[in-house]
Amino acid sequence: MAKANENYLKLPGSYLFSTIGKKVKEYQEANPDAKIIRLGIGDVTQPIAPAIISAMHSAVDEMAVKETFKGYAPDLGYEFLRNVIAEEDYKSRGCDISADEIFVSDGAKSDCANIQEIFSTDNKIAVCDPVYPVYVDSNVMAGRTGTYDKNTETWSDVIYMPCTEENGFAPQLPSVTPDLIYLCFPNNPTGSAIKKSELQKWVDYANKVGAIILYDAAYEAYISEDDVPHSIFECDGARGCAIEFRSFSKNAGFTGVRLGFTVIPKDLKAGDTPLHPLWARRHGTKYNGAPYIVQKAGEAVYSRQGKKQLKEQVAYYMNNAKVIYEGLKDAGYSVSGGVNAPYIWLKAPNNMTSWDFFDFLLDKAHVVGTPGSGFGPSGEHFFRLTAFGTYENTLEAIERIRKL
Ligand code: MLT
Hints:
The protein is 36% helix and 15% strand. It is α/β, with parallel strands linked by helices and 404 residues long. β11 (269-270) and β12 form a beta hairpin. D-malate binds at residues 41-43, 109, 132, 188. Residues 41-43, 109, 132, 188 line the site of D-malate.
């Protein structure tokens, strides 16, 4: 008889953004006239830039011609894309990463979730608290997290690294030694960033204790300060302890198109085992790969026109971040983030819980955000707003919140 994977049954509730989606849908059904503004999930709103659309059109046309038709993509992704990534994202920043260390995929979300499969289920993970839920959820499904405590909303076998007002939402090195350390900078959900010298401390620590850092750099396009690193491979010794995830979702508007990549240095090992060949065998090599048309779109991201148009798009969202940050600060809210990241992290007023503030905002201002406690216990009493809305909606949402 077939048996279900019991680890899935340990997951509390549904995925954070599904819970929010359900709540908003119910509210809209009960209040059909409410003009709801969604600044919850970090989903982009601006159309894909013309240079990228044009590359996709050409790739579609190639598919219609016998001589240029493409079937399965190569396992690691097309060389034209991996070469340009290696050059533009790594070599130009002084990082020693080559094209054959880049694995193109259908997005950072699946890679962040699947990466744990190449590690032993005995490995102990450390995560920031609050944290993007995918890291913990995927480890729960793999049976690596122990038991769930409903009161503390924590897992017995996970090392939590609190990111609080006191530490500027930047985690401290853990007191218990982990095997795998998930880091995301610029951070989702707090919008915080760390300097290269601080990231170097993590790399030195990981090399010392033999841990691997799983580094999510999905928001690197939003970095505005010079001393904030775009890649963990800017740090000395990172090739010996780090895997990096990148996404085209937030910088190029591909949340629906799906494209990302993972960098695994060829010499990176867990114990004595090289990890590059294991990821090459991951399930989904063929299924998770991105289609030719999408990889051509990815290549256009690095073209002269593509870069110019995407810079404008990032500036558009960061202007929204400024509208949110300054509008809320002016209204007396305690706010952070929004400088190197498209997320603003605010404190719920009057010591409200994050979910009470969620309900309050939805009901009184018809604005949707994300409750901080949904990202982990240290997120309680905090709230995330995304800068990915339209400018008009962002302005309107902040006006409504200011009037409360
Ligand atoms: C978020 O809102 O945290 C992100 O959009 C989720 C994601 O990128 O998967």
